[in-house]
Write a structure and sequence with these properties.
About 30% of the residues lie in helices and about 25% in strands. By secondary structure, it is of the alpha/beta class. The strands form 3 sheets. Strands 3, 4, 5, 6, 7, 14 and 15 form a 7-stranded mixed sheet that branches. Strands 10-9-8-11-12-13 form a 6-stranded parallel sheet, with helices on both faces. It has a two-stranded antiparallel ribbon with strand order 1-2. β14, α14 and β15 form a beta-alpha-beta unit. α6 packs across α7 and α6 packs across α12. The longest helix has 13 residues.
């Protein structure tokens, strides 16, 4: 058995190098997963192109992980060599106040939450025994590809968000941001029964690609005032629900002007740390607008999202536009940032 593996290491903002490093060691109660496919997430790209580690480099990102059990420790009994697994990065203690209150996605046990959270841009990853015991590892059916199963991770938070805000018929839903997450939101909104989905972005290519995911109307905000466009499309009433799924404060500011009286706005995309968003608080107050922040998902939601991702009802093939070897991770970053790719999946063994 080789003691080395290939991995994409980040050495600083935009400095990602594929190198040979030591293969992780299998703990007695853990396992080693041979990574067969790993998705390239928008948060990965943000982390890889900024000083996300504040100088603590090199570091291996990647959290949309699927693979085959390659080795098990002498004390591990749940899984065996050859098992096909999806590794949900979230791990919760189910004992802290947040977990008990039903918000396990905000688990305050930091020692638990960091278990198997990242490290997927490599050929192998070590899974600790505590991660196995705590949960968040799901078996991939034999008839489902590793690439399709990797979509379960980005789908999870989208699934939880739309469930929590009860998207359904006859909602008109506005999604700001036609990236992969926005496309997931559009498709899942339609699956849940939304009557109308309106997508907003500044990238015309992304907007046109979004049509295939159930989007009824597109608004190019680089050419049109998106607030006025939404009002025109909704008879001046506004949408039932508006989701800001971009890393930009300005779209949060705009979102409250697009929602109907008594409607709901979701701040889904993370914005730069320390930044502040300007909001018309009188509009929020007098129009009875509810604003919800969303992050993560519970174990229950992650399991149901996984089942959807590997089911025939979910069109995974339409989302995965590029499959690249790990060696071309920098190309994948550029394809995603330009809008040419919807979802890039990397193969560590190609």
């Amino acid at each position: 058995m080789s003691t080395k593996m290939k991995a994409a290491l980040m050495y600083g903002p935009g400095d990602v190098r594929v190198e040979t490093v030591d293969r992780p060691v299998c703990e007695p109660d853990g396992l080693i997963l041979k990574i067969m496919a790993v998705g390239l997430c928008g948060s990965d790209i943000r982390n890889l192109t900024t000083d996300s580690r504040k100088g603590a480099y090199p570091f291996i990102y990647g959290h949309e992980i699927t693979g085959i059990v390659d080795e098990t420790g002498s004390e591990e009994t749940r899984y065996k060599v050859g098992d096909r697994l999806f590794l949900f990065p979230g791990t919760y203690c189910m004992e802290c106040e947040e977990c008990i209150s039903g918000h396990s996605e905000n688990c305050s046990n930091t020692e638990v939450t960091k278990l198997a959270g990242t490290g997927g841009f490599a050929q192998y990853i070590a899974v600790k025994g505590e991660k196995i015991r705590r949960g968040g590892i799901y078996r991939i059916p034999e008839n489902v590809s590793f690439e399709a199963a990797s979509l379960a991770e980005p789908l999870t938070s989208v699934y939880a968000c739309l469930e929590n805000i009860r998207v359904g018929y006859p909602d008109t839903v506005v999604i700001i941001g036609a990236g992969p997450i926005g496309d997931f939101m559009a498709q899942l909104s339609k699956i849940r029964g939304a009557h109308r989905v309106i997508m907003i972005d500044i990238n015309r290519r992304r907007l046109e690609m979004a049509r295939q995911f159930g989007v009824d109307e597109i608004i190019d905000s680089s050419e049109t005032d998106p607030i006025e466009a939404v009002l025109q499309l909704t008879g001046r009433k506004g949408a039932d629900k508006v989701i800001s799924a971009t890393p930009v404060n300005a779209t949060q500011t705009q979102s409250i002007h697009m929602v109907r009286k008594g409607g709901l706005v979701v701040f889904f995309g993370g914005v730069p740390k320390g930044s502040m968003t300007e909001l018309d608080c009188n509009l929020i107050h007098y129009n009875n607008i509810w604003i919800k922040g969303h992050f993560g998902a519970s174990y229950d939601q992650s399991m149901r999202a996984f089942r959807l991702a590997v089911s025939p009802e979910f069109p995974s093939g339409k989302f995965i536009t590029h499959v690249l070897p790990l060696d071309e991770i920098n190309k994948g970053i550029q394809l995603t940032r330009s809008g040419e790719a919807i979802k890039v999946v990397l193969h560590p063994w190609d």
